[in-house]
Amino acid sequence: MLFHLLAPYARDFILFNLFRYITFRTGGAMATSLIICFLAGPSIIRWLKSKQGEGQPIRTDGPETHLKKKGTPTMGGLMILVSTGISTVLWMDLSNLYTWAVMFVTLGFGLVGFFDDYKKLTKRSSNGVPGKIRLAIQVIISALAVYAISTAVSPSSANMLAIPFVKDYMIPLGPLFIPFAVFVIVGAGNAVNLTDGLDGLATVPVIIVALCFILISYLAGNFVFANYLQIHHVPGAGELAVFCGALVGACLGFLWFNAPPAQVFMGDTGSLALGGALGTISVIVKHELVLAIIGGLFVAETLSVVIQVASYKLTGKRVFRMAPIHHHFEKLGWSEPTVVIRFWIIACILGLIGLSTLKLR
What's the pTM value of the predicted model, to 2 decimals? Predict the structure, then answer.
């Protein structure tokens, strides 16, 4: 919005020229969402407490240390959605279809998570919306977004899959690209959702991935940089850096209230939305496989659940003491802060490895 209001007057007021730069607007979006989260957070938490009573239901079969969290409200993802949405609209180029597509998925997945959290609260159970229904809605939302994105991408690259560490080669997926892209978005949403089990565990890795995609989006959207690095050039993708900046600021603001002992939980409202947003961005900038590297922590969490379920159904035995894998380490005796901080370190390392794909080609 500010881009359209102020950039046209750059000739008359040299300061307004800053609004033409994606880097400046990314920083502005980050600061704005952080401030909104700080200011609105206490009010949102008080409102959630007044509406939820006993707070998020705590699993009785989980680690015993989690029982002391009883009474903590959930749906804190609303703080992230509100601050990200306002700051993105304020600083983005409103004509950019890619950003609107990401916003659509973020809001859509957020609503799915909201109803899931709401049902858990009303039933006082850890079981919310049936998995098949939730998954079906996510697929529909993702398919609509992928279709919109494919109309904006050049036909020569719309159905192509880029390979990390390899230049000048992309795999043509043809009609399989749409289901593949839908899988990436839905998978990312649910992977972040599975990771969100400890205070701050999912938030910081999301921040790390979003920071990486600020750089990737900016470079992919710039023809000179994309050509130099031999990565696929996607005109207009640079504007996604503004959204990623807003996401980083919102997550930092939320982490202030989610730091142990947490005043509020993110809930499915936030985790599904964050994962869906990151998955959509990766599809747009043609870095789907790089997302699997940068977000490798989310992949590991998801695989631990898949392995656990498959092993139990096939052999009747469990590979891990409890899944997702962060609970396994808690069962081994690791304290929650130890698990969280060590997983953050792993996320940082994976982020650096993922960024190395930009140059090592």
Answer: 0.94
